[in-house]
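not sure who needs this but someone in the group chat was asking about Delta(14)-sterol reductase from Mikania micrantha so here u go. i didnt clean anything up, its just raw.
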Amino acid sequence: MDLASLLSSFLPSWISVCLLLGFFSYLGIVGSVLPGKLVPGANLADGTRLHYRCNGLLSLLSLVGLLVIGGWMDFVSLTAISDRGLELLSTTFIFSVIVTLILYVAGRKSNDRSASLKPHISGNLIDDWWFGIQLNPKFLGVDLKFFFVRAGMMGWLLINLSVVAKSIQDSKLSQSMILYQLFCVIYIMDYFFYEEYMTSTWDIIAERLGFMLVFGDLVWIPFTFSIQGWWLLSNKVELSTAAIVANCCVFVIGYLVFRGANKQKHDFKKNPKALIWGQSPKVIGGKLLVSGYWGIARHCNYLGDLLLALSFSLPCGISSPVPYFYPIYLLILLIWRERRDEARCAEKYKDVWAEYRRAVPWRILPYVY
C-alpha cells in the first residue's frame, strides 16, 4: 500500500460514523433496560455514592447473538469492522476529541456542588481537558465514565471477532490466531462476569473524565490491544507444542494473579472481615490490606495484568516487535500509574503508608521491583 492509499484509508466515512453511533446507541439503550445487578460505588467526598447497573455480560452476549444472526441472514457483514479498521480508528479518535471538548465546556459551566459533578478547574486548559473537570458526568442519565469503559472492552472483542471472520473468509485461520483469540475471549468475558469489581477501581473512584480516560477507553483499548490479531492476519506463525504449553501457562498464572488479587481487594472493601486464603485478613492502619496477594506486592494485580498482556502476544512468535506493543506499553503505563498511586497513598496515609511499605517492600514483582 502506498502512502496516499494509506492516508486515504484513515478518512472517516458515513458508514464508519453510523457503525460507531449505532454501537453507542445500542449500549446506551440496553444498558438502561436490560436487567442487571445494581452495585453501589465507593463513598464520595460528600458522603454520597453512585450505583451502577452491571449488565455488561448480558449486553455483550445479546449484541454478539444479534450480529451472528444478522450475519447468517446476510443483514450485516461480519467483516465490516476488519474491512474498515483504520477509518473506524480515526472516526473514534475524532469522536473522543469532540466528546471531551463538550465535557470541558459543560464542566466549566456547571454550578453543581456535589462530589460527582463539582467542577475542578486548574486554569490550565490543556490540563483540564486532558484530565477532565468532573468526576462522574452523565448524559441522558448514563454515567459516561462507566459507559466508555464498557464500550472499550466490548469494542476490543468486536474487533477481534471481525478479524477472525476475516481470517476465515480469506482462509488464513491459524493455530496462533485461535490461541490469541481464545485468551482474549476468556479475559474479556471474565471482565464482564466480574464487572462489579470495576466500580472499586481507581479510574472509577478518583479519576475525572477527560481526554485521557475517554481516549484510553474508546481508542487505545480496542485498537491497540487488538494489534496481535491484525498482525496475524498478514503473518503466518507456526508454534511448537512446547511453545503452546508455555504460552498457556503464562496466561493461566497471569489470570490467577490478576483475578485473585482484584477479587481479594473488592471483597475486602465490601467486608473487611472476609477470609483470605482461609485466614482472617491482616490490616495495617485499619485500611491497608497485607494478606493474600496484597502481602506479596503492593500492586500485585499489575503483575497479573502484565503476564496476561504477554500471553496475548506470545502466539505471534518472536519474529517482530510489533505484536509486543501492548505488553511493552502496559509495562510503562503501570509503572507510571504505580508511581502516581504511591505518591497519592503516601500523602493520604502518611505514617501508616510508611509502615505498610516496610511490611510489603515489593512494588509489583517480588525480589525484582
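also Strands lie at 37-40, 51-54, 138-139, 142-143, 283-284, 288-289. if thats useful
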